[in-house]
Amino acid sequence: MTALTLSTAGAATLRADALVVGVAKGAKGPVVAPGAEAVDKAFDGKLASVLETLGATGAEGEVTKLPAPSGLKAPVVLAVGLGAVPEKDEAYDAETLRRAAGAAARALNGSKKAAFALPVEAAEDAEAIAEGALLGAYAFTAYQGNNKDTKDSKNAGATQATGSRAGAKQPLGEVALIGAKPRDKAHKAAAERAIALTEEINRARDLVNTPPNDLFPESFAAVATAAGKEHGIRVQVLDEKALAKGGFGGILGVGQGSAHGPRLVKLAYTHPKAEKTLALVGKGITYDSGGISLKPAGHNETMKCDMSGAAAVFAAVVTAARLGLRVNVTGWLALAENMPSGTATRPGDVLRMYSGKTVEVLNTDAEGRLVLADALWKASEEKPDAIVDVATLTGAMVLALGNRTFGIMSNDDAFRTSIHEIAEEVGEQSWPMPLPAELRKGMDSPTADISNMGERMGGGLVAGLFLKEFVGEGITWAHLDIAGPAFHEGAPYGYTPKGGTGSAVRTLVKLAERTAAGDLG
Q: Max CA-CA distance within the chain?
């Protein structure tokens, strides 16, 4: 993992492989951002003009490397674009700093140490830069080269990998943050939070990126159990026998076609002074073939990512424990592998769910809502103050909101608004979505209490309405459909890598912090 230090040294005197500075897009050309004064001085006050000569504009995410002059200890200066210069008396927002730091960290793969001299006016700025750099430095290399240890399914997703193919550059080794104050209580806390949060986001990314022959319900449950022991979280794992005895027809129905049996994992972090309890439920389909309703060619290759919701819930609970938040956080991981076989659920089968309701399965590729339904009802039995489920649930949500934005549905408009505001605050793109009552009728079944499919138009909202049926009466609930941003297939940008992203973890952790502080009522 990339290390983080808060440095008291100046930008000119700190020894590092590279020195990162910010450059903004001004009306008349690039403008050197605060934090780089000593670097600009070493260039005789001409850093902006040198960058402009090299083609730099200050556009967001733009990276320009140049040799350092003799007045600096670092041999290379890396200027990263921050976008437009802020209005007078305004600072760079946290997400701008986060993305710039991520872009810089990615550009410095192979370096042992880099000093970041980006604008820091408060502890929040230092935290954003640290988050961006640590997330941007992520790489998943477990299956490259001769790294036999990380190919063991028992270790799947447990740590960021260290193996690599011959010649591949390793991630940036250390981030030295200039401008932060290591002896300041707020700055120290910001750094500690950034480390805990990014390590768990990166662990979630590892889980999402681990191939399905190594990550299946049992091995995912083993990772959760090991983390629980490490961080004082109580973990309970229900296997096939326990699920059958308990009547978890949804989870069993989805997993019965696979050689890898399903699991329901409960992680419980408790604080002795907590006044509120937050339940998080994650869809954990470790591989989704579609089952008997087989996905067409071209739609299967990335379906290892269908457990991203469970990975996000797992990471959020562990982060809450590491931060010692004054709130009880319970995570439910609904784990199954959806495969076609002679024992698989067929279209037309009826499943009796844990709640007692019966569901006619019209499409076995609408399986996420089935495992979530059982977990939601189980979570409801404990009467938490709120439940939030997270899932790569529908392609319809991607069609509606694109690849970078997740949808938020809820049975409480104020709660939905709060989650949207929190997501925007932490830099995760989201949008509130409705639950139109008229779409419920499309799920009426002549055979069972409800079917798992409804109208095609508004399919993401239909899925939300299905889940709402399995939330206990009087419990505040929200559903995050992260199908778009959970897995990034394009080129990396900012702090977002190719592959698993760790979507929704930051939102869930901030929600837990707000709940602990009593800010959500």
A: 80
Q: How far is 372 from 438, CA to CA, in rounded Å? A: 22
Q: Which of 151, 188, 295, 357 is catalytic?
A: 295
Give the single-character DSSP code of 290.
Answer: -
φ, ψ of residue 32 to 5 degrees: the values are -70, 130
Q: At what angle do helices 94-107 and 123-136 cross, to 10 degrees?
A: 40
**Residues 480-504 pLDDT 10s:** 999 999 999 999 999 999 999 999 9
Radius of gyration of the chain (CA): 24
Residue of 25, 99, 113, 369 with catalytic role: 369
Known catalytic membership, residue 468? no
C-alpha distances (whole Å) from 90 to each of 85, 131, 184, 319, 372 are 9, 21, 23, 31, 44
Name the percent of the chain lying above pLDDT 90.
Answer: 92
pTM beyond 0.90, yes or no: yes
The DSSP call for residue 385 is S
Phi, psi of 167 (to 5 degrees): 85, -10
**In a 3-state reduction of DSSP, which class is residue 102?**
helix
pLDDT confidence of residue 129 = 98
DSSP conformational letter for 439: G
Q: Beta strands of 70-218 (E only): which ranges? A: 76-84, 113-117, 174-178
The alpha carbon of residue 78 and the mean position of all alpha carbons in its chain are separated, in whole angstroms, by: 28
pLDDT for the residue numbered 521: 62
Q: Where are the alpha helices (DSSP H) in 325-428?
A: 368-380, 395-401, 413-426
Cβ proximity of 460 and 433 under 8 Å: yes
Written as six digits, the tokens of 356 are: 């007692």
Q: How do beta strands 406-410 and 476-481 pair?
A: antiparallel
What are phi and psi for residue 82, nearest 5 degrees? -110, 0
Read off the DSSP letter of residue 493: B
Given a contact cutoff of 8 angstroms between Cβ atoms, the answer to whether 490 and 305 are in contact is no
Instruction: List the beta bridge partners of residue 335.
Output: 263, 284
Residues of the chain with pLDDT under 50: 151-154, 158-163
**What is the structure's pLDDT at 1?**
84
> What DSSP character marks residue 211?
-
Q: How far apart are CA 155 and CA 350, in angstroms?
A: 37
Measured in whole angstroms, how far is the alpha carbon of residue 170 from the centre of its chain? 22
Structure tokens at 373: 């339904």
Q: What one-character-per-residue DSSP string does 215-269 give?
A: --HHHHHHHHHHHHHHHT-EEEEE-HHHHHHHT-HHHHHHHTTSSS--EEEEEEE
Phi and psi based region of residue 483 (left: phi greater than 0; alpha: psi -120 to 50; beta: remaining): alpha
Q: Is 369 a catalytic residue?
A: yes
From the list 413, 409, 389, the residue with the least C-alpha distance to 401 is 409
Backbone angles phi, psi at 200, to 5 degrees: -75, -35
The pLDDT assigned to 234 comes to: 98
